[in-house]
Amino acid sequence: MSEQITNADSGQHLKRVLKLKDLAIYGIAFMTPIAPAYIYGSASATTGGTLAMSYLIAMVAMLFTAASYGRMAGAFPVAGSTYSYTQKGINHHLGFFAGWAIYLDYVLVPLIVFITGALYANAAVPEVPYFVWVLIIAGVVTVVNCVGVQMAAKTNLVLVAVMGAIVMMFIVVCAKAVLGGAGEGTLISSRPFFNPGVTNVNVLVAGSALACFSFLGFDSITTMAEEAVHPKKDIGRAAIIACVAGGLIFVVQAYVAQLVWPDYTTFGSADTALFEVAQLAGGTVMSGLYTFAVILSTFTAGIAGQSSAARLMYGMGRDEVLPKKFFTYLHPKFQTPVLNILIMCVIGIAGSLLLNLTLVCELMNFGGLFGFMCVNLSVIVYFFFRQKERNVVKYLILPALGFIICFYLWLHLSKLSFIVGFSWLLIGLIFAAVSTKGFKIKPKIYEE
Q1: pLDDT tens column, 56-75
Q2: CA–CA dist 271, 314 (Å, integer)
Q3: Amino acid permease/ SLC12A domain: from which residue to which, for each copy (predicted)?
Q4: Which superfamily does CATH assign the domain made up of 20-371+412-435 to?
């Protein structure tokens, strides 16, 4: 493969500047170290106070899919991620639907963080209206992405470091509070992993499905394949590193929070449960810092989510699944898909002002898990059947387990998720049918 992937029409190309560290941080930034803050209250009620166990199960489950992304990135180190892997590994048309579904996921990540960040910022500074905070957050995220991935990588590095420091401070403060007699009164307890009389298979499945929400985003690393210095080697490694690192951060946060506040039924508000924990453990200083970390997460996840969706559109445009001239346009100076980024900015602002946060979270799981299933299936079809690779564990058993786990969790999503999710797929079906003249014309595949 040539050192840089070029735009066939203009000679422009995405810059190869991202190393393993940048890619791993990019994935962690998308997931955000403080992700438990978004779901802790409701998830604790669902899991009977064993969210730490649910996070552990979800991490193991996601590792199978992370490995599959790594396999496909090694074979096809191009922008487009889920879309490209399914298209090249299985079928042109299924690839479109995989991309269409995962696009829903990437679009919704900025919405969630824009909404959450603006809500908390507005609560902290009520003199500034909610919609103004949405515009500020969206504006900063868009400018960073338009300037280029090097700036985005450096920005994410700084913000993730700050968030990580606050999360570590939260963990230490909670530990000191427990040792001082708060909550369980001991740092060694099985309760965050098993609650007698409450924990069962159904509870674990429901909890793991919720916990998967926090992991959605590690796959975004693969959309940066054409900007990675060593994509075949680093993409898969970065996905696994991000998945493990993020998972361990989630598990420890859930563990210490449960020890500080054992009775998960007594939170004043499920939406701000971890802030109540922070307040109890470390007073207003700790709760204030935790609020600040949540606001920072809107920038890291927003930058990564917007960037990933823009590059997914770039890949689909290059294959002429979307109008090529528009979606493959790169800024002459920054070499970024600036028009796609601006589209994502407009969608993010509109969605933040019009949509409900709960619905957005549910729909993310629909698109994300659907895309994960397609990638796991792509490994089996491409490597085991087409390439005749006979490493049964690597190319059949592991991706099959990834597919089965994602499918099982996908089946346990809410009815509303399926109604809206399949409506989205129906729109994609109509678009694909028209653009391929009744599926008689195969979408073009970009050749390296």
Answers
A1: 988 988 899 988 988 888 88
A2: 36
A3: 41-422
A4: Amino acid/polyamine transporter I (1.20.1740.10)
Enumerate residues 6+ apart whose C-beta is below 8 A from 223. Answer: 79, 80, 81, 307, 308, 311, 312, 315
pLDDT of residue 80: 54
- Beta strands in 34-162, from DSSP E residues, in sequence order: none
| Distance separating alpha carbons of residues 264 and 254, to the nearest angstrom | 12
- Give the amino acid at 136: I
* Residue 448 confidence (pLDDT) above 80: no
| Residue located via tokens 């690597």 | 394
Q: Answer whether residue 105 shows pLDDT above 50.
A: yes
> Looking at the DSSP assignment, which residues form a beta bridge with residue 348?
none
Range of weakest confidence among 141-145, 164-168, 187-191, 435-439 = 435-439
Q: How far apart are CA 341 and CA 332, in angstroms?
A: 15
Please give the Cα distance from 421 to 367 (Å, whole number): 7
Q: Give me the phi and psi of 55, to 5 degrees please.
A: -65, -40
Please report where in the chains the tokens 């007594």 appear, as a residue: 266
Query: What is the rounded CA–CA span in Å between residue 19 and residue 31?
Result: 19
How many CB atoms sit inside 10 A of residue 55's CB?
33
Residues 6+ apart with CB under 8 A from 35: 213, 214, 246, 250, 297
Helices (H), 272-356: 273-318, 324-327, 338-354
- Mean pLDDT across 206-234: 78
Helix (H) or strand (E) holding 328: none
User: What value, to the nearest 5°, has the Cα angle with vertex 245 and ends 241 and 250?
Assistant: 150
Instruction: Quote the CA–CA distance of 272 and 42 in Å, as a whole number.
Output: 10
Length of the chain counted residue by residue: 448
Cα 323–325–329 angle (5° rounding)? 120
- Answer for the pair 225, 69: CB distance below 8 angstroms, yes or no: no
**pTM (predicted TM-score):** 0.77
**pLDDT of 343-383, one tens digit each?**
989 988 988 888 766 677 767 778 888 888 999 999 999 99
- Domain locations in the chain as residue ranges: 20-371+412-435
Measured distance CA(305)–CA(327) in Å, rounded: 17
